[in-house]
Amino acid sequence: MGKRNSRSKAAAMFDSDDDSSVTSSSTARSDLMSVSGTEDVQFDQDSLLDQALDALDEKRGSTREKAFSTIIDALKSNMQHQFIEKKFATLLHQCLASIKKGSKKASAKEITLASHAIGCLALTVGCSDNAREIFEDSVSPLDESLARSTEVLKVPSLLDCLAIITFVGGNDQEETERSMDIMWRVIHPKLGSNVVAVKPSAQLITSVVSAWSFLLSTVSNLKLNSKHWQSSISYLSSLLDKEDRSVRIAAGEALALIFEIGDVDKFSTEAKNASDLTQESKPQESFIFLQGLKGKVINQCKNLSAEAGGKGSAKKDLNSQRNLFRDILDFFEDGYAPEISMKIGSDSLQTSSWSQMIQLNFIKHFLGGGFIKHMQENDFLHDVFGFSPKKKYLNSEHRMSGGEKRMFKSPNSVLNKARTQLLNKQRLLSEGRNAGHYAVSVVEDEA
Questions:
Q1: φ and ψ of 225, to 5 deg
Q2: What is the CA radius of gyration of the chain?
C-alpha cells in the first residue's frame, strides 16, 4: 500500500499534459513544495530523487522523461553518494529498461535521457565495483541500440554513455577496443544482406570521432607502422576536407592525438636497421608512407588554420577552427601540445597534452553545468586530472550524517575502493599498452 501511494505521488509530481516538455530539478522542487503546501521548507532532495525513481515505473512516457531529467540534474548538481548507495541497482535497472528493445515503448528523448543518466551515474561512483557493474551490464544494450537506431537524435547520447562507462569501468585494452569498434560501426557498419549502406550525417561523424578519440586518449605507444593505423590516419585526413566545420575540428583533434601517442619518427631507425624484409612487413615502406601521410595532414592543417571563411560562416566557429589548427601545426613543429588553464572555483586546472585536453573537453561537455561541482568534489576526476582542490569540503563536513561519514572514512568505503581500483586499472593499462591495436580498418574512399 505504501509503495502504491509513493508511486501515486510520483505520478502527480512528474505527470503533465505536455508530452514534449522536460522538467528540471528546480521545476520538480516547486512541484514538491506545492504538494507539501510549505514553500518555505528546506528542500528534501533525497525525497525528490525517491519520487523521481518511482516515477520511472509510470506508463506515460512524458512522466518518465521528466523523472530522468530530474535525476540527471541532481546527479550533476551534487554527488548524491547517499542516494546512490541505497538505490544504485534500481536506478541502473530502470535506465537500462528504457534502452533495451521491447521492455518499454521508449521515445528517442527517453533513451537519450536514460543513457545520459547512466553516464552521470558512472562518473559519480568512480572506479568501483559499481562502475564495473555499469560497464558489464550496459555495453551490450548500448551496442544493440546503436545497431538498430534509425533516429540520429539519440545516437550522440548513446555514444557518450558508452565512452563514459568504458572510461570509468573498463579494465583493459580489449574492453576499450571493443567499445571503440562499436562506435566506429555506427558510421562504417558491417554490410550484410539485411544492412543497407547509408551515408552518415556530419553530426553522426562528429559524435563518433569525438567519443572514439576520448577513449583513444587513454592509450599510449600506438603501433603507427601497422596497416590499421595507417588506414585510420588516412580516413581522418579525408575528414579534414569535409564541408562541415565540426567534422574537421573533431578529425583534427583525433589526428593530433594519434601523432602525440605514436611517434612516426621513431620508426625511421627501425626501418634502417631492419634486415628481414618480408612481403608482409616492410618497415622502410611503412615509414615512407607514414611520413607522406603526416606531410599531407600538415598541409591540410596549414590551409585550415588560415581559412578565410565562406558565406554564412559563424565567426566564432571559424576562429575556433583557426586556433585549433594553428595549435596542431605548432605541435608538429615543436612537439608541444597547447597548454590549457581552467578556473575551478578558486583553484586552477592545467593540461599540457592532447590526451588531457580531449578528456577535459569531453567530460566538460558531458556534465554541462555540473562540471565545476564535479571537479570540486569528485575524487575520480581529481585522480584523472591530477587535480587537488585547496578546499577539501570543510564547509560541508559538519553537515554530513553519521552514515555519510562512515561511507567517506571507512577503509571499505565506496571512495576508498574507488581509489584502489583506479590505481589497479592504471597499472593494467600501462602493462597492456604495448600490445594490440586501438584502430579501425577503413578505406580512404569510404569517407
A1: -85, 0
A2: 24
Collapse the DSSP code of 108 into the 3-class scheme (helix H, G, I; strand E, B; otherwise coil) and give the result: helix
Q: Three cell numbers at 329?
A: 601545426
Query: How far is 180 from 162, CA to CA, in rounded Å?
Result: 9
CB atoms within 10 A of CB 179: 24
Phi, psi at residue 270, to the nearest 5°? -60, -40
Around Cβ 82, how many Cβ atoms within 10 Å? 17
- State pLDDT tens for residues 316-353: 778 889 999 999 999 999 999 999 999 998 999 999 99
On whether the CB atoms of residues 46 and 84 are closer than 8 A, the answer is no
Nearest to 338 by CA among 318, 316, 323: 323
Query: Could you tell me if 144 and 102 are in contact, meaning their C-beta atoms sit under 8 angstroms apart?
Result: no
Task: List, for residues 373-414, the tens digit of each pLDDT value.
Answer: 999 999 999 999 999 998 654 444 444 444 443 344 334 444
**Domain residue spans in the chain?**
219-338, 345-392
411 class by beta-carbon count within 10 Å (0-12 exposed, 13-18 middle, 19+ buried): exposed
Determine which helix (DSSP H) or strand (DSSP E) holds 343, and give its type and residue range. Answer: strand 340-344
Name the residue among 116, 132, 209 with its Cα closest to residue 172: 132
Cell of 436: 594490440
Rounded CA separation 142/146 (Å): 6
Q: Is the dihedral of CA 411, 414, 415, 416 positive or negative?
A: positive
Distance (Å, whole) CA 15 – CA 307: 50
Can you read off the three cell numbers belonging to residue 299? 598541409
Above 80 in pLDDT, residue 242?
A: yes
Give the global pTM.
Answer: 0.80
Amino acid (1-letter code) at residue 186: V
State the residue for C-alpha cell 568501483. Answer: 128
Distance CA 241, CA 231 (A): 16
